[in-house]
Amino acid sequence: MRHDVDGAALSAPRTAEGYAGDVPPALAWQWVQEGQAVLVDVRTDAEREWVGQVPGAVPVAWKQWPGMAMNPAFDAQIREAAAGGLPLVLLCRSGVRSVAAARRATELGVVAYNILEGFEGDPDSQAHRGRKGGWRLRGLPWRQG
Questions:
Q1: Contact of 93 with 61, CB cutoff 8 Å
Q2: Dihedral-angle region of residue 121 (phi above 0 means left; psi in -120 to 50 means alpha; beta otherwise)
Q3: pTM > 0.85
Q4: Which residues pair with 53 in a beta bridge?
Q5: d(CA 13, CA 72)
Q6: Residues 51-59: contacts with CB within 8 Å, 24+ apart?
Q7: Do 92 and 42 form a contact (C-beta atoms < 8 A)?
Q8: 14 - beta bridge partners?
């Protein structure tokens, strides 16, 4: 059985407070591929454009650049992403904003999971992302620009 960076099995989500749970990137991708969940990228439009994006992910920014102001359309966009009745798996840069977004989605009556590690993972000892976990490092599908 495969495990995530903390040794947790990839077969089940971790419990969380205020939303459905936390899932490792590979499990989230498996759910999406099997038609069991919808992948929602809650990063800013700028992050998706400049850093990279996951093909087929629904873009619903939690906050927007510049200034990181709340996306006033978030509630409507998240409801639209969930309209098919599937749970949502939410992706951000590091797995922090997606927790807040998952909590809000849950308040709206949507089943929402946070994707652990996010797109870029945690910063390393030199404050560089992309070397300690994350969607890209795990070899999951993404494209630049």
A1: no
A2: left
A3: yes
A4: 143
A5: 29
A6: 51/93, 51/119, 51/120, 52/119, 52/136, 52/142, 52/143, 52/144, 52/145, 53/142, 53/143, 54/91, 54/119, 54/135, 54/140, 54/141, 54/142, 55/141, 55/142, 55/143, 56/32, 57/91
A7: yes
A8: 22
- Residue 127 pLDDT: 67
Q: Which amino acid is at 43?
A: R
Distance separating alpha carbons of residues 74 and 72, to the nearest angstrom = 6
As given in the structure block, the two tokens for residue 106 are: 């849950």
| Helix ranges (DSSP H) in the chain | 25-33, 45-51, 74-81, 97-107
Burial class (CB in 10 A: 0-12, 13-18, 19+), 5: middle
Say if CB 25 and CB 115 are below 8 A apart.
yes
10-residue stretch averages of pLDDT, the chain, 145 residues long: 46 90 96 97 94 96 90 98 98 93 98 95 71 85 88
Cβ count near 85 (within 10 Å): 8
Give the pairing type, strands 63-64 and 69-70. Answer: antiparallel
Place of tokens 């904003």: 97
Q: Dihedral sign for Cα 41, 102, 83, 140, please.
A: positive
